[in-house]
């Protein structure tokens, strides 16, 4: 047991490398997580942007925070899919019979989600720069944005872990991504909430994605953040802790 604890990070590195190889070899994952958000950004900026009133001269500046969150939301279905595949093939049982840390296999999937999203979000930001995106944010603001995006990724990833471990079919494992996709659409990610009907507006203004989008947008453009950043972090942290608690209960039951 002591040896397993001592080599936890080595085991974790091996599991991370294994999962990252699966991601890099899956063209479907690359298209959905990176290329589709870029295509959406191009569509909204160059086709629909002229008809959307956001109070900004360059719509890509308004749009980018929401596109980043959509890219993260697109990725969580693949976390569930990879976990479901490992469970069905008995991979976890095989790993648990070896002298490796039991939690390393699960954490390998979680960190893969984090690392792959860092790569995809970086590519999306670079494309946005080519489209005219500009930000006066300094290093501290960018670090705060990176922290919020990382926490949002972990929150959605731990939610995705639960169906990945419990689903009976591959469709059930991947279905978690669908309701998550709607949250950025019914938020201030694409248009200001004041343009929405009262009922939709009330939901949009009090759901987590709007708080996170507004906090990132304020950090990007030196606008007053106020308590918004703490609301965004509170949503991310609360969802992460709750999802982690239930995910680990399910994982320990299976282990």
Automatic annotation (TrEMBL):
Which Pfam family, any one of them, does this sequence belong to? ABC2_membrane
- GO CC, alphabetical: ATP-binding cassette (ABC) transporter complex
Secretion signal: which residues?
Answer: none
Task: Specify the ABC transmembrane type-2 domain's residue ranges.
Answer: 28-254
Give me the segments passing through the membrane.
Answer: 30-52, 64-85, 106-133, 139-161, 173-191, 229-247
Report membrane topology: Multi-pass membrane protein
Q: Where in the cell is it found?
A: Cell membrane; Membrane
Q: What GO molecular functions are on record for this protein?
A: ABC-type transporter activity
* Membership in a protein family: Belongs to the ABC-2 integral membrane protein family.
Q: What is this protein called?
A: Transport permease protein
